[in-house]
């Protein structure tokens, strides 16, 4: 069972990650942010996910620092910079996105939005969006299985061997199902009254706990480092 | 004379970009506390009409509405979707896209929170509803960990928690096994006893006999016939089939099913067997699903796999097709042990939702994708009645045609074991019959055919042997 975070803690993480991105922070600060933002994963025994992200990030970092300066082919340079530098700078934001999905619940988010009286169109869209990804992930697995029956390998190896074909073949059924899922979820949320005007309540009591306090402190470290001139 | 709960006067409905109205001149009155079942072919307008009753059309699913539909005084097209929330509870076919929150307790609380009920009262109402629906033991469970039947039960409980006057149930039994349907029946009967007006759209009719008061037939968007319960239940099976409807009494089907139960031989070694599963234990690293499973498959027969939701039917399909390795035991092909990789090359799973399995821009390209026998294309397309659709986009075809395209692709890639996962879920009788004909056609080949199904009419009517999982 995960220790749940208050959605406000996650909003704080979002702000910090965006500041780091906008500041065009130093590599040291960026790497520290990535390591700090993986702490909630380590504490919740998400070893493989956290480890995978850290390894990927440092591979990108190593490539951009030591390999990219020696690439002289302009055709290769652009996609490689995108992979090693562009995508790398997005890693803190991606980590926050994962924290938002894994360590809090949709009920907590909706409770926060109700408390802040955010517009209904935003709350309904957010609710559908939040529920959309787990459903699409299950669809993606089914499509990969379906491809395996057509002789196209599943898993990372299959993607590496036939990236274009795999991407194209997955995309069509995924998009077809995505539109149906989005429509079904919207219908469901509307018939359950999330769009009702007037006062709404919530069983979820939002409270900042010790875990939130710790995570807020961790999230503040990159900002303090930035202020300290790193 | 009581005021009708639902009235439909001269109602026609046309979807955007369509020339002709989909619903035509529907006139119907439903009294408070009445339970009405709308039956008819797929695409006859049942779901479209039900969406006019719960406010989804024309508000969210747009179209041009003529005539008047009112539900407890709410006029479709003028009342907002939100106005329907306290009045109408809705449950849909797919349980996986009906829940929003993490736990059962949160899911039941969700409509109450949205209606502004005080948290203390919410807790009481959640407990009360859980007791009524016999789901108190599920309250702290994660929604995604529940079986489809349990999720559908929670969806019904959540739809009734605001005590609506009307329930609209759109093909809610399509994905459910016998046990789940029994629970659903109990819950619907108690809602009826409480005076709730209930409208069902259904293909599977037998489970509804005990609570439906009136049956209504839709054909090509028009309401063509109504029957009282007595009139409907006295219709012969032949008459029902003529109307494209399924059976109302499954007693004979159950007997047929029992007679077809798989009889394990003292030894599986039989020259005519193609596949032999020997003492299989299947499941995942963290969880064994089924143990000591032995059976044999041979050509020219259809094997049905039946059993309750969550018993391991899909896990067995994944194991037989090589997507999962067995935890223990082995699978032999013509007497030789086969690895998961070898099984994957030999087998093909036709999924319930064929949208997952169609990747190309035309039927021709689809069947040629990684085909082992491309020279058989024309012959196979003709055999499966697909030749005239060769240049059409597969996703533009009907569900039955898509299913045939997937089968053609499987046969073109040289697959010798075809497993169908719930192939007739949500199908009317005519389409069930069509699928049965297709099984007969496949039986003439050397292909091994396995059908995973909850559908008694399919398993009793077209399967030659039945493997019943979950029975001691």
From TrEMBL, chain A:
Keyword Protein biosynthesis on entry: no
Subcellular location per the Swiss-Prot or TrEMBL entry: Membrane
Keywords linked to the UniProt accession: Membrane, Transmembrane, Transmembrane helix
InterPro entries recorded: ABC/ECF_trnsptr_transmembrane (IPR003339)
Its membrane topology: Multi-pass membrane protein
Stretches that traverse the bilayer: 12-43, 49-69, 90-110
Superkingdom of the source species: Bacteria
Protein name: Cobalt ABC transporter permease
Species per Swiss-Prot/TrEMBL record: Ligilactobacillus pabuli
TrEMBL record, chain B:
Subcellular location: Cell membrane
Pfam families per record: ABC_tran
UniProt xrefs under PROSITE patterns: ABC_TRANSPORTER_1 (PS00211), ABC_TRANSPORTER_2 (PS50893)
ABC transporter domain residues: 6-245, 275-472
A GO MF label: ATP binding
Membrane topology classification: Peripheral membrane protein
SMART domains to which the protein is assigned, alphabetical: AAA
InterPro entries, alphabetized: AAA+_ATPase (IPR003593), ABC_transporter-like_ATP-bd (IPR003439), ABC_transporter-like_CS (IPR017871), ABC_transpr_CbiO/EcfA_su (IPR015856), ECF_ABC_transporter_ATP-bd (IPR050095), P-loop_NTPase (IPR027417)
Keyword entries, A-Z: ATP-binding, Cell membrane, Membrane, Nucleotide-binding, Repeat, Translocase, Transport
Family label: Belongs to the ABC transporter superfamily.
Role description: Probably part of an ABC transporter complex. Responsible for energy coupling to the transport system.
Protein name (database record): ABC transporter ATP-binding protein
Organism field: Ligilactobacillus pabuli
């Amino acid at each position: 069972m995960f220790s749940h975070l208050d959605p406000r803690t996650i909003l704080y993480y979002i702000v910090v990650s965006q500041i780091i991105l906008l500041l065009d922070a130093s590599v040291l600060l960026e790497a520290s942010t990535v390591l700090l933002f993986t702490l909630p994963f380590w504490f919740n025994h998400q070893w493989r996910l956290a480890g995978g992200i850290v390894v990927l990030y440092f591979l990108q970092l190593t490539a951009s620092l030591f390999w990219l300066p020696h690439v002289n082919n302009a055709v290769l340079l652009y996609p490689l910079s995108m992979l090693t530098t562009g995508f790398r700078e997005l890693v803190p934001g991606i980590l926050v996105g994962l924290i938002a999905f894994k360590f809090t619940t949709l009920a907590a988010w909706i409770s926060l939005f109700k408390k802040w009286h955010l517009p209904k169109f935003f709350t309904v869209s957010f609710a559908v969006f939040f529920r959309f990804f787990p459903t699409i992930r299950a669809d993606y697995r089914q499509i990969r299985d379906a491809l395996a029956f057509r002789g196209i390998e599943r898993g990372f190896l299959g993607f590496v061997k036939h990236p274009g074909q795999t991407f194209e073949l997955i995309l069509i059924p995924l998009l077809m199902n995505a539109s149906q899922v989005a429509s079904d979820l919207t219908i469901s949320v509307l018939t359950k009254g999330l769009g009702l005007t007037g006062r709404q309540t919530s069983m979820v009591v939002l409270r900042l706990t010790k875990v939130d306090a710790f995570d807020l402190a961790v999230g503040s470290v990159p900002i303090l480092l930035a202020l300290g001139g790193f | 004379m009581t005021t009708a709960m639902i009235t439909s006067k001269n109602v026609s409905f046309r979807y955007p970009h369509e020339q002709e109205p989909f619903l035509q001149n529907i006139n119907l009155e439903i009294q408070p506390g009445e339970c009405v079942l709308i039956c008819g072919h797929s695409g006859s307008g049942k779901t479209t009409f039900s969406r006019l009753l719960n406010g989804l059309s024309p508000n969210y699913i747009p179209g041009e509405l003529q005539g008047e539909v009112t539900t407890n005084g709410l006029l479709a097209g003028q009342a907002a979707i939100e106005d329907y929330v306290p009045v109408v509870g809705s449950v849909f076919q797919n349980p996986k896209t009906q829940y929003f929150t993490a736990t059962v307790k949160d899911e039941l609380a969700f409509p109450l929170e949205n209606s502004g009920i005080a948290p203390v009262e919410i807790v009481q109402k959640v407990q009360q509803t859980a007791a009524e629906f016999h789901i108190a033991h599920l309250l702290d469970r994660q929604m995604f960990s529940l079986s489809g039947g349990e999720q559908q039960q929670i969806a019904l409980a959540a739809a009734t928690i605001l005590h609506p006057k009307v329930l609209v149930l759109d093909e809610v039994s399509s994905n459910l096994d016998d046990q789940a349907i029994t629970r659903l029946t109990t819950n619907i009967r108690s809602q009826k006893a409480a005076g709730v007006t209930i409208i069902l759209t259904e293909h599977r009719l037998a489970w509804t006999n005990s609570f439906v008061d009136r049956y209504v037939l839709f054909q090509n968007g028009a309401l063509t016939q109504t029957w009282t319960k007595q009139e409907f239940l006295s219709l012969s099976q032949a008459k029902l089939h003529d109307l494209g409807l399924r059976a109302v009494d499954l007693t004979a089907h159950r007997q047929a099913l029992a007679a077809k139960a798989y009889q394990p031989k003292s030894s599986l070694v039989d020259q005519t067997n193609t596949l032999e599963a020997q003492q299989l234990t299947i499941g995942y690293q963290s969880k064994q699903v089924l143990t000591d499973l032995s059976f044999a498959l041979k050509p020219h027969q259809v094997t049905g796999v039946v059993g309750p939701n969550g018993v391991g039917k899909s896990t067995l399909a994944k194991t037989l097709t090589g997507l999962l390795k067995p935890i223990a035991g082995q699978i032999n092909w013509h007497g030789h042990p086969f690895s998961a990789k070898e099984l994957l090359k030999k087998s093909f799973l036709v999924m319930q939702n064929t949208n997952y399995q169609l990747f190309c821009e035309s039927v021709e390209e689809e069947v040629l994708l990684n085909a082992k026998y491309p020279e058989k294309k024309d012959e196979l397309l003709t055999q499966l009645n697909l030749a005239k659709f060769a240049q059409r986009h597969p996703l533009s075809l009907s569900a039955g045609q898509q299913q045939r395209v997937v089968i053609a692709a499987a046969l073109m890639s040289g697959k010798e074991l075809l497993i169908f996962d719930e192939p007739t879920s949500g199908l009317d009788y005519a389409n069930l019959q069509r699928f049965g004909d297709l099984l007969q056609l496949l039986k003439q080949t050397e292909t091994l055919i396995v059908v995973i199904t909850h559908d008694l009419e399919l398993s009793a009517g077209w399967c030659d042997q039945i493997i019943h999982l979950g029975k001691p």
